Amino acid sequence: MNYLRTRRSRAGNPKGGALANTIAVVFCLVWVFPVYWMVNTAFKPRSEAMTSTPLFVPKSPTLSNFDAAVNQTTFYRNLWNSLIVVGGTVLLAVVLGMFAAAALSRFRFRGRRAIMVAILVVQMLPGSALLIPTFLVFNRVGLLGTYAGLILAYVAVVLPFSIWVMRGFFLAVPVEIEEAARLDGASTWQILYKILFPLVAPGVVASSIFAFIAAWNDYLVAYTFMKDQDQYTLPVWLASFSTPITGTDFGGQMAGSVIFSLPVVVFFLIIQRKLVSGVSAGAVKG
Question: Closest Cα partner for 79 from 256, 276, 274?
Answer without folding.
Answer: 256
